[in-house]
Amino acid sequence: MARERVVLAYSGGLDTSVMVPWIGEKYNLDVIAFTVDLGQGEDIEKIRHKAQKTGAVDAVALDARNLFIDCFVWPALMAGAMYEGKYPLATALGRPLIAKLMVDVAREKGAKAVAHGCTGKGNDQVRFDVTFQTLAPDLRIIAPVREWKWTRDEEIKFAQKHDIPVEAKIESPYSIDQNIFGRSCEAGVLEDPWDEPPEGAYAWTTDPLKAPNEPVYVEIDFEHGRPVGLDGKKIDGVALLEQLNDLGGKHGVGRIDHVENRLVGIKSREVYEAPAAIILHEAHRELETLCLSKPSQRFKTLVSQEYADIIYNGLWFSAFHQDLFQFVLSNQRYVTGLVRVKLYKGKATVVGRKSEYSLYSKKLATYESGDQFDHDAAKGFIRLHGLGQQTQAHVQLLKDGRGFDLPGLLRHEK
Ligand code: ARG
């Protein structure tokens, strides 16, 4: 009798390769390997062949870079989603897409289970499992790394017994995940938050000290909050992100050292590299300063934080997210224009912005001739603006000739 099947998120590394025979033995299931290109810079066809050699009964490889950018990366950018103000969420954005595509494959191939290689203390297991649970509650979820409590030696022994090639090359001392929106690097010496990350933790970016002594400028075109052009030319998402990663990386832009609050209750230290993400977020936020009204801009910061939490916490497939996305779409309808960014020694600085929908009015702002601001109106405005505070001071704070009790710390220290 044919065995039932499981769709495994297969990266081609040792862990997920060992999983192929392990799942077969432990769960009596045939493995369909699933590999997806999110711009991590690996040859997915090669990985697909490796899966077949490792004993997978079927192996699927998919280029989902455009889907990733259009349906995950751009919405996150438009929303201004930056976890704890620092992390542009590359890894977190990839997970719900991978999980969704795995569900699609499971349906197409009639598989009864899904499996991934996440550990039991990270965020990624949550993002995978919650997505599976939401989109396909009938599928059984298998997470071998959460179950096998192997040392590395035991894992290698198992691999050798099953003729799985254990690469001789020295393994990275870090745990790394990457896609076109950024690279995440943790573990090893990074686990001491006092120690500066060694140069070896970085792969996409030049040390800012060694970056070129001349800055470079890029001009990014946005339409309704979405980047569509680079230096005067229309460009698709893949090419835009690749070029900005490359150029930003050369100038040392996009290094992030983050002690973050994980969903599972621990703090962890991660080093990110995300040149394109940093450049685009900076540029986008600056364009918003021209195109959004003051209350819209202020409220947007709350939405950005919510949006980042939704992504980080693995709740992409929620109605709340759909609702917030509608807000973002509407909020971005006039965020169209051009931003000029200077890349220099590790920093991306916006030095110019313009838009046909700009709310900035030179005629109102200028201190030179042509000023149309009504200076006389300011007087009446200020009287009313300060009226409440003035009334309170006279009735309460300054009553009976008292002075204003100056807020300050020293006088309260005994
Ligand atoms: N801490 C990041 C997150 O939860 C990245 C996780 C994956 N990192 C890694 N180095 N494997 O989104």
Which descriptor suits the 3D outline? elongated
- Looking at CATH, the homologous superfamily of the largest domain is HUPs
Q: How many structural domains?
A: 3
Total number of helices: 14
Bound molecules: arginine
Which topology of the largest domain does CATH recognise? Rossmann fold
Q: Return the string of H and E elements.
A: EHEHEHHEHEHHEEEEEHEEHHHEEHHH
The major beta sheet can be summarized as: 5 strands, parallel
Strand order of the largest sheet: 3-2-1-4-5
What does it look like?
By secondary structure, the protein is α/β, with parallel strands linked by helices. The protein folds into three domains: 5-161, 3-Layer(aba) Sandwich (Rossmann fold); 175-292 and 334-354, Alpha-Beta Complex (Argininosuccinate synthetase, chain A, domain 2), CATH 3.90.1260; 364-401. The chain has helices at residues 14-27, 44-53, 65-79, 90-109, 124-135, 144-147, 152-161, 237-250, 275-291, 294-312, 319-331, 362-365, 375-385, 387-397; strands at residues 5-9, 30-37, 58-63, 113-115, 140-142, 175-179, 182-186, 216-223, 226-230, 233-234, 255-261, 267-273, 337-344, 347-354. Strands 3-2-1-4-5 form a five-stranded parallel β-sheet, with helices on both faces. Bound molecules: arginine (ARG). Arginine binds at residues 91-92, 123-124, 175-177, 184-186, 270.
